[in-house]
Write a structure and sequence with these properties.
The protein is of the alpha/beta class. Helix content is 43%, strand content 10%. It has a 6-stranded mixed beta sheet with strand order 3-2-1-4-5-6, sandwiched between helices.
């Protein structure tokens, strides 16, 4: 939308993980692991040039458990331990972002997704005339999609990212963005080890939410004998009520994390100048530093937002 400023919010952990697993082993000029840093830099330069954002923020996870781990011991329990060669690269990406002049957010007890949701909400409150683009590889952020927020979902590289608006979310899942948490609570989410209700798959979950709107309404219909469905489905839902409601709480993003947010503090000065170049050259990424010329030019893909 012409005339509106753009705010890019980066799910740093997601992009770093994808870069690490997509690229071959690479070391920086000190001989330390750097493929995740290099891949993140590639993704950042591409998206910064394409969107020419006025504001940027990058959100990170911490090692500390969140309320989700405390409420459900199995939360993300299936995920393997992060390789040591990747762990050492997170601070390096933060260092790189500092050189780029990008504001970063990290807070114990909250996931990067929660910080993204909070930043998006606060940015919208600070300026109603703003377009928010979330760069992530995590489907959870689709909950945030609305008239102001689009999600740039990376599954096969940033250049092939799929832009999700409300229509695209509905086409993919059969539900709206505001129903994603309920959808995952019912159908499950293997990526977070959320089992969902036994025997309820994606189609059934979508059909239920199309008919009743949300989980609370589904259970009100069951209690009032107005639920339309097979006896088996009724039995499953009744038996799973406590778990389904708990799972919805786990999958819903928190948008009021206690962060110190200031829209002006997230202003992005572009990629020209000494600091961004030195940040890249500091890791030995000389070829990337040479790409900075013209990186602030606007791109026609801004019209997609």
């Amino acid at each position: 939308m012409a005339g509106r400023k753009t705010f890019l919010i980066i799910d740093a952990n997601s992009v770093i993980h994808r870069a690490f697993h997509a690229l071959p082993e690479l070391t920086d000029k000190l001989g330390e692991p750097a493929q995740a840093v290099y891949g993140f830099a590639l993704a950042f330069l591409h998206i910064a040039k394409e969107l020419a954002p006025d504001y940027i923020a990058a959100c990170f996870d911490t090692k500390k458990p969140t309320f989700r781990h405390k409420e459900f011991a199995g939360y993300k329990a299936q995920r393997p331990a992060t390789p040591a060669s990747l762990v050492v690269q997170f601070p390096k990406v933060m260092e790189l972002l500092k050189g780029f002049g990008v504001k970063t957010f990290v807070l114990e007890g909250f996931e990067a997704d929660d910080l993204i949701a909070t930043v998006a909400k606060k940015a919208g409150e600070a300026s109603g005339e703003i377009e928010i683009c979330v760069l992530t590889g995590d489907y959870d952020s689709l909950q945030l999609v609305n008239g102001m927020v689009r999600v740039y979902l990376v599954t096969h590289g940033v250049k092939n990212a799929v832009i999700y608006d409300s229509k695209t979310v509905n086409e993919k899942f059969g539900v709206g963005p505001d129903q994603i948490a309920a959808f995952k609570a019912l159908a499950g989410d293997p990526s977070d080890n959320i089992p969902g209700a036994p025997g309820i798959g994606k189609k059934t979950a979508a059909d239920l939410l199309k008919q009743y709107g949300n989980i609370e309404t589904i259970y009100r219909a069951l209690e009032s004998q107005e639920f339309k469905g097979s006896d088996k489905l009724k039995e499953t839902l009744v038996a799973s009520k406590k778990k389904v409601m708990a799972f919805e709480n786990l999958t819903r993003l928190v948008d009021d994390a206690p962060i110190d947010f200031d829209l002006a503090g997230c202003e992005f000065g572009g990629l020209r100048g000494e600091a961004p170049r030195q940040a890249l050259e500091g890791f030995g990424f000389v070829s990337l530093a040479k790409r900075l010329s013209g990186a602030e030019e606007k791109c026609v893909t801004r019209s997609l937002f």
